[in-house]
């Protein structure tokens, strides 16, 4: 179980303070066993100063690391047990501030150690004591710098991961919006065609000479309502038809009968595609279901061409009870899988939008045989 940031900080503060206490007691024991010339250890006062130094370290080391390190460097002049807190104060400084600041404070401590031991001991004791203390300080500062570098690296990687997730989320959202726009355009084409047919037939009935007056008036209402619906449709959805200047007009919306032409187009582009169509009468499949089936196969062929170039693709379209089942599968290329391209999976997100709109299901992934499989089931209306 991962700890929350505040709990991790408190645990880290407690661990650093515990190390300071252990180091301070070791230094106090050393001073009692082998005191320097003229050194007299008064245990109660020494422990009081050491305890106060550890308390300062525990409470303020994150907020004011520079000030705490400087204050503790004065404290170990008064008590041997405060040396542990001084060392951990340098560690905190090195792990929370740039290396220039850490080295500057560590240099001041080194000068203080040189002067203090020069005044207190003999030449032999001076060299031994200074060497040990400076080595301890150097190791502690180096460890603190390593901790800071690791923290910065983790923060950098976390930020990059967050940006990558945000980028993927935006790409998925963009794919959804693009697919909805595409669906709106298709809806505009289909509805405009059917409403215009309704208006034409209503107009023919309205102006039929032998039609009863009530029937002609009703046909007139239907014709005017159809034209008003056309105008509303143009205002609400027609704006999505706007394209860049010079863009080619879109072809009529495809249906299930256009699948062989789509497969043949992929074959001419160099793909190895096998189409297995098991629909008794494709023309009887509703246009909206056939249109979605066409887009699913189109996206599956595009994915196969992009991620498994040269692979043999198998397309199966079958009427299974009240559903139209579509399956596109292909073997994966040999060797390790390449890293995902930016925007990879956006097309599948769009297909999910499209299939969900008509109450179908979409499934994709690796099959037990190691082939990539894209499968959809689209509901067919009752015959």
From TrEMBL:
Keywords: ATP-binding, Kinase, Membrane, Nucleotide-binding, Phosphoprotein, Transferase, Transmembrane, Transmembrane helix, Two-component regulatory system. Its EC number is 2.7.13.3. It is an enzyme of class 2 (transferase). It comes from the Bacteria. InterPro entries: HATPase_C_sf, Sensor_HK_TwoCompSys, Sig_transdc_His_kin_sub3_dim/P. It catalyses: ATP + protein L-histidine = ADP + protein N-phospho-L-histidine. Residues 179-243 form the Signal transduction histidine kinase subgroup 3 dimerisation and phosphoacceptor domain. The chain crosses the membrane at residues 41-60, 69-93, 99-119, 126-147. GO terms for molecular function: kinase activity. This is histidine kinase. It comes from Actinomadura yumaensis.
